[in-house]
Design goal:
Mean pLDDT: 77
Number of strands: 7
Distance between the termini: 96 Å
Radius of gyration: 29 Å
Shape: elongated
Low-confidence stretches: 146-157
Strand content: 5-15%
């Protein structure tokens, strides 16, 4: 690649003239690299614990920036985010987190196969530990049990 210097690019003093153009190529390169980093990092920031959530017809609410998920897996194991913890250490692990505050919301996720009593046990552990702001997580949509049972057209007397 060659370059030539013309008379218009040299001042009267023999110096090169200043160009008043902005070179945006490095800026675009940086923006594209940042875009790729965010595209790769965004899926990694979500909780990826396989839990078969029930569905709900309630209107979804806005999530905070960094939600704290407590999950109950089908084998009744408890996890904070993706880290498995024992039930006796659940409150201690929540207190040890970086954003340890009893006023933050705890999002409780339970697999569809988890018995109701086990869910209530975890809720009781959280309540006894001072966490009163607990939200239950479900999938959006129409639940299968929300539709009324069909009634036959010719009921038997």
């Amino acid at each position: 690649m060659g370059a030539s210097i013309t008379d218009t690019e040299i001042d009267d003093d023999g110096d090169f003239a200043e160009t008043h153009e902005i070179n945006v190529t490095p800026f675009i390169d940086v923006i594209l690299v940042l875009l790729i980093i965010f595209m790769v990092a965004a899926p990694l920031s979500t909780v990826d614990l396989p839990v078969d959530l029930p569905t709900s017809t309630a209107t979804p609410q806005k999530k905070p920036d960094k939600p704290t998920y407590v999950s109950i897996k089908p084998d009744l194991a408890v996890a904070i985010g993706e880290t498995a913890v024992k039930r006796v250490d659940l409150v201690r692990s929540l207190d040890a987190m970086a954003d340890a505050s009893k006023d933050r919301f705890i999002f409780l996720r339970a697999d569809r196969a988890v018995p109701y009593g086990e869910l209530m046990d975890v809720l009781e552990i959280l309540r006894a530990g001072g966490y009163a702001k607990i939200k239950l997580v479900a999938l959006e949509g129409v639940s299968e049990s929300a539709t009324p049972p069909s009634v036959s057209e010719n009921p038997k007397p």
